[in-house]
Design a protein that fits this description.
This protein has 208 residues and is of the alpha/beta class. It contains six helices and seven strands.
Length: 208
């Protein structure tokens, strides 16, 4: 198994989640060198798998011979027929929802989500995080894994950890949101952690 896997992301939350899981297996995680200067590929797939492939293929061409990981993930809410899905990171932006003045993208996404759920008051809001990871070398996808975690959406945010929708994503079995659990627990339970663990297990069985 390689000692370093390169991640095609600049998102510090994703890097932290991947690094926590990788450390258990004696691996190092590094952001793809120069990724901030690489033009981002157009993520026009209609599934998480399609977008993960697009990113892995594109970014791996900038690190010849290296294994490059890309993921696509998001939130699927049953009451909204699976929204925001592949649009999770740009949910509010795509809808033209500005939110309060000075609000960051995560806050705007969460506020827009709650706005969309307003007509479903009195119900629980079952949801899941879903992640697909693709690993590629020299522009060719070699392996794809996926993971999911079930939960519910809370109206009021709880916790200061995590990112994205984590403060609103409640895990009934732990009675905590994803933003309240510690890093090791999140890595073990999260959609990204599950998909990454499958990837590591497959690499151990069949080194690339």
């Amino acid at each position: 198994m390689p000692q370093t896997l390169y991640i095609a992301t600049t998102n510090p939350g994703k890097l932290r989640d991947f690094a926590t899981s990788a450390a258990v297996h004696g691996l190092a995680i590094a952001s793809l060198p120069g990724i901030s200067d690489i033009p981002a590929p157009i993520e026009d797939g209609d599934t998480f798998a399609a977008n993960a492939h697009i990113k892995a293929i594109a970014y791996s061409t900038f690190a010849p011979g290296e294994l490059v990981i890309a993921d696509d993930s998001g939130l699927e809410v049953d009451a909204l027929a699976g929204e925001p899905g592949v649009r999770s990171a740009r949910y509010a932006e795509d809808a033209g929802y500005a939110g309060p003045m000075g609000a960051g993208i995560d806050e705007r996404n969460n506020l827009y989500l709650l706005d969309r759920l307003a007509s479903h008051q009195g119900e629980k809001w079952p949801a899941r995080y879903h992640c697909v990871i693709a690993i590629a070398r020299n522009g060719q996808v070699l392996l794809t894994t996926d993971g999911a975690v079930e939960g519910e959406i809370l109206k009021e945010p709880r916790g200061t950890g995590g990112f994205g929708y984590d403060p609103h994503f409640y895990l009934p079995q732990l009675k905590q949101t994803m933003a309240e659990v510690d890093l090791e627990t999140r890595s073990a339970l999260s959609h990204r952690g599950k998909a990454f663990l499958k990837l590591l297990e497959e690499l151990r069985r069949n080194p690339l």
